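ERR on first pass: missing label on line 2. Operator R.T. fixed the label and resubmitted. Corrected input:
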Amino acid sequence: EIVMTQSPATLSVSPGERATLSCRASQSVGSNVAWYQQKFGQAPRLLMYGASTRATGFPARFSGSGSGTEFTLTISSLQSEDFAVYYCQQYNNWPLFTFGPGTKVDIK
Amino acid sequence: EVQLLESGGGLVQPGGSLRLSCAASGFTFSTYGMSWVRQAPGKGLEWVSSISGSGGSTYYADSVKGRFTISRDNSKNTLYLQMNSLRAEDTAVYYCVRLTGTIECWGQGILVTVSS
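pass 2 clean. output:
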């Protein structure tokens, strides 16, 4: 089983600041990584796929990078609506998926 | 508009059974793989099971293998999850999701509580 880890568990950021979230896979998953945004009481929403392709509806301040085992999600200038939990997920052995434990981005 | 609407959740005793349904609309259901993903209270996301568009291939997480069965009725545009021998650790919100390369569309979720 491919294990996904994320760091940090919680990231406290002031509005307008940059946020960098990390995700690591226990073995290579190529670029088959997605990121999801989940706000309190809501279902997750696809944010990024193919490690670096933004999903519909997300602005350019969100960017993704990485391949193999190391991945990064960057929010260039945090807005109030960006405070949420972010999960990475591998789909290299589709349709079996594994998720990371999540990074909570909260207001500093 | 793509819609996934889960139903069938609720409170069940340990060892009991429950069947979840997911009514799909707004797309050609039979051409998409589907999955169930769950989230225990205050916890992260866990993939539970997947099924191919035809229903001919099914996949399960080790935590539910032998207890849960995923199925679909393409004539009714409905996905199912039969859950048997339920345990306290199965308590979670269960999401019905549509697959492309990854999970691109989520239902609103349905709560299953396993407790005596």
